[in-house]
Amino acid sequence: MFDLTPKDLKGRILGVGDGPASFNAELSAKGGQVVSIDPIYKFSGKEIARRIDEITPVMRAELNKHVDNYLWNDFSDVGALVTCRTSSMSIFLEDYENGIREGRYLEGALPRLPDSGFYDLALCSHLLFLYEENLNFEFHISSLLDMCRVSDEARVYPLVNQAGRPSRFLNPSLRRLYEAGYQCDIVQVGYCFQRGANEMLVVRRT
Ligand SMILES: C[S@@+](CC[C@H](N)C(=O)[O-])C[C@H]1O[C@@H](n2cnc3c(N)ncnc32)[C@H](O)[C@@H]1O
User: 9-43+100-205 has which CATH code?
Assistant: First the structure.
């Protein structure tokens, strides 16, 4: 999603809206420095596990309903995808209590991130732009600026909405970020599961 290089992975990384993903657990186990911020981290591991059990059948049904919205290259079918996601969430859950103690999972939310230091890279996947029907433009621009406040570089993926169309907030966000003195690049990435979701936004200080 973010075309992360070995050099990127050596830096201090902030994952915004990481939820029950395994990135933090897996990179931390390899000696990387990652902090994840998400509102769900106010819940215990047991509560998150219960919620995962509730939503897994819903996720499976939704994917089956909209199977043509996705490209089945990385995953052969819905079953393979659900197995992969379930395995990622298990890795997260195994790491969660330890990660909380180590300060790697912090409760917090955009548009104002809690102060937890400064990062080389702030990443946000499957939240901004994708859920443009639920999150308004002011939320988007405040969130992007806040990710830039706490990092040298922010990357956001994908740039399409849930219908797979380019988000209507992308161009206005680019304008506001340029005006605020940031350089923005839209970069093609190697990962594409949702149709049309093959680009990330990269924002850097100029
Ligand atoms: C669709 S999930 C994406 C999880 C992960 N980033 C991924 O790509 O698999 C969206 C995540 O955003 C989190 N979220 C919702 N509102 C948020 C906010 N205002 N600030 C930060 N995260 C938020 C949710 O709790 C959830 O974990």
Answer: 3.40.50.150
